[in-house]
Amino acid sequence: xxxxxxxxxxxxxxxxxxxxxxxxSEGQRAALQVTxxxxxxxxxxxxxxxxxMGRWRPEKLYPVNEVDAAEKMRxxxxxxxxxxxxRAKVDAEMIDRTGEIPDEVMAGLxxxxxxxxxxxQQYGGLGFSQTTYCRVCQLLASHCTNTFAHLSIHQxxxxxxxxxxxxxxxxxxxxxxxxxxxxxxxxxxxxxGVGSDPARMTTKxxxxxxxxxxxxxxEKLWCSxxxxxxxxxxxxxxxPKLVNGKPRTQITTFVVEAKAPGVEVVCRSQFMGHRxxxxxxxxxxxxxxxxxxxxxxxxxxxxxxxxxxxxGRLSIPAASIGVAKRSLQIAREWGGTRIQxxxxxxxxxxxxxxxxxxxxHAFAMEAMLLVTSRIVDRDKKADIxxxxxxxxxxxxxxxxxxxxxxxxxxxxxxYETEQSLIERGEKxxxxxxxxxxxxxxxxxxxSSEIMRLFIMxxxxxxxxxxxxxxxxxERPWGERIASALKSxxxxxxxxxxxxxxxxxxxxxDMHPHLAAYFGEIAGWSRKLARTLFHQMIKFGVNLEKRQVxxxxxxxxxxxxxxxxxxxxxxxxxxxEGEPEVKVFALVDDFRAQALLRIRQNFAGVSRNxxxxxxxLAQGVxxxxxxxxxxxxx
Length: 633
Ligand SMILES: Cc1cc2nc3c(=O)[nH]c(=O)nc-3n(C[C@H](O)[C@H](O)[C@H](O)COP(=O)(O)OP(=O)(O)OC[C@H]3O[C@@H](n4cnc5c(N)ncnc54)[C@H](O)[C@@H]3O)c2cc1C
What we know:
With 633 residues, the protein is an alpha+beta fold. It has helices at 2-6, 26-37, 47-52, 69-89, 92-98, 103-112, 130-143, 145-157, 160-166, 169-180, 301-312, 315-337, 349-378, 385-410, 412-415, 418-423, 431-438, 448-471, 477-497, 512-539, 547-575, 580-606, 610-622; strands spanning 185-188, 204-207, 213-223, 231-243, 246-257, 263-268, 280-290, 294-295, 339-340, 343-344. The chain has 4 domains: 2-37 and 461-616, Butyryl-CoA Dehydrogenase, subunit A, domain 3 (Up-down Bundle), CATH 1.20.140.10; 69-180, Butyryl-Coa Dehydrogenase, subunit A, domain 1 (Orthogonal Bundle), CATH 1.10.540.10; 185-309, Beta Barrel (Butyryl-CoA Dehydrogenase, subunit A, domain 2); 313-442, Butyryl-CoA Dehydrogenase, subunit A, domain 3 (Up-down Bundle). Strands 1-4-5-8 form a 4-stranded mixed β-sheet. Strands 2-3-7-6 form a 4-stranded antiparallel β-sheet, with no helix packed on it. The chain has a two-stranded antiparallel sheet with strand order 9-10. It binds flavin-adenine dinucleotide.
């Protein structure tokens, strides 16, 4: 039976409808159909996917494979050169103040090869691994978030990443050398009515009579790099496909030349931070795009976009690490030197608590990203959907927590701009700028809410594969009964195992201190698996509506992954000669903090006020409690 879960039947658009959509509105149904059809599927699921099923697969995480020695040498030299360039030429404060990255900075970045870090050398790129790319993102974001965003959007979601994943040889030959050489690229998915829900996309690409060209029409919102780009990845609706006699939205992605007639930058958008993100509203009017510029096949655009985001998603958590480390550096310096009430403020317990929190989470963020990017480097096709989503959701939220902590530690100076600090002759720690720049990271490239839904959709997938048809009122009774019988067999075998009271096997060469923590994750994962199962039984097909409850379960999974990753990373650090006492201090403290959250979240699964809270919110929206707003303008 277990093999049934690990090797599900090939998932096609049609046989994948294990989710009961009968009680959904047309809009919800359309959104879900489109995203379900675009889901990645893997027969060999990841460490975290197994964790949600109460299965212990440490070999998927451990040991961390080393970066190739030749690459490491090259990467170290590149990072040293880039660091020197950033220090000498990239004035982050000026870029933020003026909203412009100077042309000479862009030219310098291009000279260093920063526009094609992962692009294979045969196409003019530097051909670095995911791990090296993440190191670069961390470095850039710790110094200048605008420069990070510019380069990351260009290569994580702009032309390089989707072409490396889905491009034809001709497309790679034609476009990759251009983008690796410094021609800026952008990614245009969002529209005024399309944020988290691409099924509502209105931009259309209509084939001409000979079928060799498409006419692109529509307007895209918030296209970062868009106002400076030479090439764009644009997602558009193409001719709908008939599924069971009903039209199903088809989304296709194209490489579009920004200079093509009919492409227009309507306006440049301005934000709270990221002031030099060159973000624009882009209009397309009868833009002729050759069929040869379709990426990944007609109708597969959302899959291209979601897979690109999945792989590209690691750059934002890498930046979050840079931000958390910068917060730590500031907290350490200021906490140790600012004297109030007779001692450095870092000696007051309330401030020390914040410093401890920043240190432990910066360490854990790095651990999670390191193990995930090494999996990518080991096998580009490996399943990292859950790990990447957790790195993004958890990492960006924890980076924000670190920024909030360091803002508090800096007191009034945290709130003061760098320019003002300089004018007063004080050291210009950029806390105010970092906060403005980084608030958006829990919103774009997959908001935290969508990431939690995504995590839980993937976590539930093995259950849906086993029992989804039995629960789906849209399926014929015969199919449902057959599926129910099969799933009963599975659960009779699976469920009792989730009560086994012991931990999991640990790698023989792992330090006993770490192995004890690592192995206990197996026990927690069984508790996680049976908790999820109990909620499935309790709520049935309505479980998907219990977003807050599912969010707690996603958070437990993320913290468990984080603890596991810190053990694996710590073992690597010990091997490299870091002193045990220093490494264990962080591992121990992070585990203690994460376990507090895990216990709290488990308690919240059974005792909560989610339903009454939901009803209150609906009452607020209807206007029942508008009286609370009295007294404001
Ligand atoms: C600075 C910046 C740069 C950007 N760059 C780009 C770019 O280069 N290319 C591009 O295509 N887009 C870009 N975007 C758009 C960005 O990806 C979207 O903002 C994001 O996808 C969210 O869409 P939205 O803002 O319309 O929010 P909405 O989708 O309207 O969501 C609003 C809120 O509701 C929540 N929500 C939505 N649906 C659900 C649900 N089903 N369940 C629970 N909660 C839900 C969201 O999480 C969010 O909190 C950028 C945005 C910004 C601010």
